[in-house]
Hints:
Elements: E1 2-5, H1 9-13, H2 16-28, E2 32-34, H3 44-48, H4 55-65, E3 71-74, H5 77-85, H6 87-93, H7 97-107, E4 110-112, H8 113-120, E5 133-136, H9 140-146, H10 151-157, E6 163-165, H11 180-183, H12 185-202, E7 206-209, H13 212-224, E8 230-233, H14 234-239
Parallel strand pairs: 1-2, 1-3, 3-4, 5-6, 5-7, 7-8
Helix pairs in contact: 4-7, 5-9, 6-7, 12-13
Amino acid sequence: xxxxxxxxxxxxxxxxxxxxxxxxxxxxxxxxxxxxxxxxxxxxxxxxxxxxxxxxxxxxxxxxxxxxxxxxxxxxxxxxxxxxxxxxxxxxxxxxxxxxxxxxxxxxxxxxxxxxxxxxxxxxxxxxxxxxxxxxxxxxxxxxxxxxxxxxxxxxxxxxxxxxxxxxxxxxxxxxxxxxxxxxxxxxxxxxxxxxxxxxxxxxxxxxxxxxxxxxxxxxxxxxxxxxxxxxxxxxxxxxxx
Length: 242
């Protein structure tokens, strides 16, 4: 299967190890993985901030960058959600019917990482080894927009030596929400405080998620507390071997 990795802006700019881990994992599972150099931002930031027009050329670029691949894998529920549920609507609202059709076609073969592993490759055991006590935070977009459900948990339960502990109030937002954290810092910080308390109550060494944005927010807070709890992307755990 010829697979394209959609790196995402945060992974490309701040967390490149997540992209590398995703490539290692997919290749270990027999996928032919490529990283199209033409790819760019999905346009979610623009649209969610009330500026859909600048997102249209980005959507057009996305369609061209990922043409010809059997599947596009995204290590981010947020960006996968934009590709699947936002881009075609934005193109349609802009009056570009042809682009809307192409965006829907791209959406039909784009998957968040855990979806691709479980639904397309049909695996939950990926040969990973991670000897740590781990708790999982489901990001809002993966949980509510994509409906990934328990797929990440099913994958984590199959990781050798990993002790998975339930996160209290797991479905509660961490407070990041893209530009929400910038526009509403007080509310965002209060939400982060509640989420960090829940993470610390688990006694976990590691908090994982499928979105680098949530992990950036949580990781910054946990480091400022000097809690000793690390944030690690799901892809990095699943790519780990003895």
